[in-house]
Amino acid sequence: MSKKPESPSRIAENKKAAYNYFFEEKYEAGVVLQGWEVKAVREGKVQLTDGYVVIKDGELFVIGCQINPLKTASTHVTADALRTKKLLMHKDEIRRLMGKVERKGYTLVPLNLHWKSGRVKCEIALAKGKAEHDKRDVIKDREGKREVERAMKSRHR
Question: d(Cα 13, Cα 124) in Å, to the nearest integer?
């Protein structure tokens, strides 16, 4: 009996989100996908960078998440790479999110797609947009850490 090797848990990550937003709370939601999308996700043909989450009629949808179809995709299905995907969460969690998103400056941002028990899950965050000076501070801190690491590395030689 050979066990199937586990696929990597992270499928795609939205690295721009941490640069553009402060995260208040994080949630995990299931993603409704079509068959060809699951196959493409297994191959890593996913991009979350421009994605965002909206609440419409008490349901969550992720818009801008791009899943590029494989060349071997089925011929009888029209593959739309930018199709709006529905997210699955409990109703009370969605209601709680609706109340928080209606406050000024808050939005829902997809952080990553990952595997959990053989299903594709999306981690979303309740986020507040960063001002331009906050972004500059992040860059300055990152460069400062880099300089310290370089100095420590050259000192140990």
Answer: 11
* Residue 115 CA, distance from chain mean position: 12
The secondary structure of the chain in percent helix, strand, coil, rounded to multiples of 5, reads 30, 35, 35
List of domains in the chain: 10-129 (2.40.280.10)
Phi, psi angle pair for 136, to nearest 5° = -65, -35
Residues contacting 34, CB < 8 A, separation 6+? 77, 83
Torsion of the alpha carbons at 69, 72, 78 and 81, rounded to the nearest 10 = 0
Round the average pLDDT of the chain to a whole number and report it: 80
Q: How does pLDDT run across 140-155, given as a tens digit for each residue?
A: 888 888 888 888 888 7
SS (H, E, C) 21-40: EEEEEEEEEEECCCHHHHHH
Residue of 130, 129, 112, 105 whose CA lies nearest to 9: 112
pTM higher than 0.85, yes or no? no
